[in-house]
Fold each of these.
Amino acid sequence: SSGINAEWPLRPGYKLYFEMAVPMLRTTLTLTPSATRGMATLKDIEMRLKSVKNMKKITSSMKMVSAAKFARAERALKPARAYGTGAASLYEKNDFDTSGKDSVLLALSSDRGLCGGIHSNVGKMVKAAHAETPITKAIIVGDKAKAILVKVIGDTFLSCFNNVGKKPTSFTDALDIAEEVLSHDYDTINIVYSKFKNIVSYNTEEKPVPSLESVESNAAIYVYDEVDSEVLRCYQEFTLANIIYHSMKECEASEQSSRMSAMENATKNAGEKIDALTLQYNRTRQAVITRELIEIISGASALE
Amino acid sequence: SSGINAEWPLRPGATEASSTTFPLTFGSPYNAVHDNALVKQVDLPSTTGHFGILPHHVPTIAILVPGTISITNEAGDVAKYFVSSGTATIHPDSSVQILAEEICAVADIDDGAVRAGLEAAQGKLSSASSEADKAAAQIEIEVYQSMISAA
């Protein structure tokens, strides 16, 4: 549906409500006879009321489903965070070069929408980074990010992953993505993902991960004992998969919590709309009755 | 093992290593067994052999092989876990991160299932055709054998 100006200061849920309601309302309005004096007929309002009530049921049940998925995602995030922070500790405690010219962008999102600004924030961050230093290679996870970014950096796509978001991400998913990333040459990977803060907020962040070559070429790594190239290669590959897994778990928690609050807003707005429409319906019904009475009475008095 | 490099500053708020304990993060993607917990000693199986970690161990990066890890906690109790492969990092500030793809407590290993798995893997090795299949079957056999010796 077109025509929704994104700059209108509508509450988040309203945008969703209008996006879903406008096509339904347009159909209802064209099917009913034109109203007298430009006022909506009783039938019009009745149909609108019915559609908004249905919408409220849908958004309310989506909210409950998201709440359940969020509880599960948050529980899974706790060990994933310890795991991912442990994995990234080598890069945090040492300063490896992540400013490499040859960097691969890994954008993490999912296939499903109706989750507030999750996907568009990832898109915004990528577009801003692209404006600063043009992106030459990108791997996109999730159809939503792909749709947003294909117009901007579509020619840089190395590969895209979908089927993300239906089931909780497992470590094997992260392994698949890591394998794909490692099949290309690069200096740094920049992972753009949504980091979970709390149930009402998340931050879209960019996390750089150095490549094997960046790490090997830095003298700091040789502080560590028993480092030969085979050990380092295995270590880097496993650590990359771990960091990707952690980032995907953060995205999952952020997305479910964001969807929960978006659906709650939509349900609340639908409820308010139902109240307003019910009032309008009753007023219109009373006006119709009054008009009929007036016609009858003036018809009767004309006969006298 | 040689002493800690005194120039490396600890991150503010990091659990510091004392002379008897060091912070350990030990977990799998699904289960964080220890998150920056203070422990006394860890013995782990790596590609370069089985070795033990005490406070102020030399900074090391190691790859784990499937085997048993024993962790001695602050109170002195020893806990044993069987791990699949993974990585182990000992930082100059004495903190240790051991990350494995799968972890299970040795007590949870079902002997019957392990023996059945070992027989199946040996069958796979004898019927394997390609080099990759043979290597995979060989790895399976080694893992089951180390599970048997762990329990």
Note: The radius of gyration of chain A is 27 Å.
Amino acid sequence: MANPKEVELLGLWVSPFVRRVEWALKLKGIAYDYIEEDILNKSPLLLRLNPVHQKVPVLVHGGRVVSESLLILEYIDETWKQSPLLPRDPYDRAMARFWASVAEGKVLENAWIALNSEGEEKERAVQLATEALGHIEGVIKGKAFFGGEGIGYLDLAIGWVSHWLPVWDEVGSMKIFDPAKFPTTVAWAGRFVEHPVIKEKLPPRDKMVVYFRDKRSRIMASKSHV
Amino acid sequence: MGEELKLLGVWGSPFSRRVEIALKIKGVEYEYSEEDLFHNKSALLLEYNPVHKKIPVLVHNGKPIAESLVILEYIDETWKDSPLLPQDPYERAIARFWAKFLDEKCVPAVWKSCMSVGPEREKAQEEALEFLSTLEGELKGKKFFGGETVGFVDIVANFVGHWTGVLQEMAGVDILTEDKFPVLCKWAEEFQNCPVIKENLPPRDKLLAFFKAQRETITNFYKNKV
């Protein structure tokens, strides 16, 4: 078991990317120190640890610095072997990585654009996110989680859909997370957020609504000044 | 063993060539199938990669894998000789970080610097210079990103090592130049002279002619890309 001082995580309370890492650490029973970052006022520590992107999450393990949440998940999985996140079989691993990249590049990216835009740009983004979610709908195939009986890498990668996407839908006055269109995914989301490790680490919904509403206003305002 | 390995690719694509380089380094035999991306995607491609409809797609014993970085990791995990990624989890995380940086930042910026027009091109050029500078910093006196021999990051950086020179000549722009990036240019030279790389790069003059002739088709193709 790692010494608490040995594992540190720089994060932001509302970030789904940070939460992924916390879920992974908790699933493996790894103790860590959490450091909350003020993203509007980045600390010298963050700028030193992640000079290229200046973003959270950043994992520091025995002085070694790892950034980019999905890469951190792989690092955690390769360093602490208990409760494996990725499957053993190379093809299954490839599928997990592939679907994670679809969820990230097509669902999340477009849902974020849709949240923070309007008109044609928004419509197109909603369409793309919905299309991609349609592909993911078929992936669980009758299992409880993407990882099978238990939560795995892909569940953690797509986990944001269960708690952040409904908030984004509300704030953005849209409906990507649609039970009529995606019954399997919505059912999975319900199971995911009820898992004790996940549940413990979900940011409060009301605070999230305020946060994303405020962020949306600021992004829209800066667009109109271009 | 009756292994069946097929690669759907395009002769001029850096993503497709990455996979070929990896398979050649490992000494793995495969059947290559050239796709006509712009005019006539094969039924096989649409069946094997319904989400993106893109190459490369590697099909191993009937099971398809898409996304070049996912394919590279699959190859490395399936054929253990001549490893592409380092063994240590931290060094693997670093290699994956730079691969991601290349694909998400360097490639799009360089591409847009050469292929787009107006303010989008100018902004892309500024970014390309910034990102390449960051990339150059990572070489830090090593012969290759992988150390003494070509590794995962070098393979992924093939776009910088070969395609960038061709694109900037076609577009008449100066991005990757010796005065700005002496270290990166030296690396590109070593990279291109490496026997396994040399044999698996599309001929420069053919590539240049292709981009010159197809510039409009390509620009439209990528504009309408989902």
Note: The longest helix of chain A spans residues 90-115.
